[in-house]
Design brief:
By secondary structure, this protein is of the alpha+beta class. It is built from 19 helices and 13 strands. Helix 7 crosses helix 8, helix 14 packs antiparallel against helix 15 and helix 15 runs antiparallel to helix 16.
Amino acid sequence: MEKRIIECVPNFSEGRDRRIIDSICEAISAAGGVEILDVDPGEATNRTVVTFVGEPEAVVEAAFEGVRRAAELIDMRHHHGAHPRMGATDVLPLIPVAGVTLEECAAMARKLAERIAAELKVPTYCYEAAAFTPARRNLAVCRAGEYEALPKKMEDETGKPDFGARAFDEGVARTGATAVGARDFLIAVNFNLNTTSTRRANAIAFDVREKGRPAREGGKLTGKPLKDENGKPVMIPGTLKGTKAIGWFIDEYGIAQVSMNITDIAATPLHRAFDEVSRAAAARGLRVTGTEIVGLLPKRALIEAGRHYLHMQQRSTGIPDSEIIKIAVKSMGLDDLKPFDPAEKVIEYMLESKSGDGGVRLTAMSCRGFAEETASESPAPGGGSVAAYMGALGAALGTMVANLSAHKSGWDERWKEFSDAADSGQALMQRLLSLVDEDTAAFNRIKAAMSLPKGTDSEKEQRAAAIEAATLYASQVPLKTARAAAEAFPLLRAMASDGNPASVTDAGVGALAARAAVRGAALNVRINAAGLADRAAADELIASARALEAEAAAAEEEILRVVDSKI
């Protein structure tokens, strides 16, 4: 299952006093569960931008603690800087990275804004995707007049904040107001050109950016700019929604670039921007020689790009993420100017490398390491983890046959059919791999519950409840494994019947592995459920496991008949 990750980029109205900045960052880190990726103070703006990521609940809590500390340390009555501002925490956007939608981030932002106003007494506006009205999607509308306008806005029907509206008292005078919002991830990217001409780079930027270029009389570049009835320039829109772009020359590289911010990666994915800038450049006799990513980006941007270029090649996309990312890197020339290391540029990978939990996931071990860990004196990993791994191997074999079938000579017209099958197999394999570690985690939860104190009657009750909950979870996890492993049979059946005939026995071995996974997981359901005090829940879990065993036996037998007929 994909890990849920969001990013938060609060802007605090302090960029000069390092002690205050460090204290705010310490409050964010102390909340736990987040990684601070960047701290960018600006002296002229008197403003610091902090970037941190983590799972949604942890990020929201860390953001709240950051706002709390800023409200304690920053007095807006004495703040001056070059950047627009209205509060100690000026803006606080939540940004989906992985496994979370923009709509979910918007809901979180609204709840966070309400909590900040209720508990910290800081008035809050909701902007962009979290806005309650269309006008307030624009941050400039929320921040109109900046801090100095708050005395009037706080009690004005149209200007008052969404939460915490009241008279401009001493508290508001000190903290100002905060805008809490949700927006999609912004990708900053530069497209390298085989020219030194800034003018030509600008022309390409104007061709593609959403704002476009000014319309001129006669459609000529040297014509007089056209204006509408209000005296505003008439614009010819560009071809890429949700983008801003300019052209410039970079001394360091000796080339011109189209520098772009993609503010809506749903409307304009990275690969679409690359293709369109390449098209616009070619129309002007130029080439895009590569791409430079500024800062970090979410893994999905590279996965979408890699899948796009594999589809253009009529190649299967049911391959590991690392291979898909390699295709994206080469297709867009991400390593044109310098080496591109996904571990340093992809948020999810950076977060993994910074986790620092000291634990070693079973799925991160070598085959030998996993086998030796299983063979050790420790009771975990045990049969549940091994069952999940057998299921993953069964799905992996079905995926392999699908990929080989997609590339089989003479079957070119069927590549999409097999690519889709490989995609489903790849996703199933990943789910089962996650269950390898989850099964061991479930066992450890029982151990933790068993170690709770049992001196007083209250402690005994709490311990018994914790053991019951942990035992229920330890019964549910192998049932999830059995259900997931059973999902491999349709793929394996299709590959045995219609896949590359040279690999039919691989589909057969996959069926054997999948059935072993179902049976092994069912055994774990039965032994764990036996320890439940809730016998009705135990009986239901065991009945579900036995039904899956029967279905798996029939599916395995059917697939092996097909395999035997083709050998």
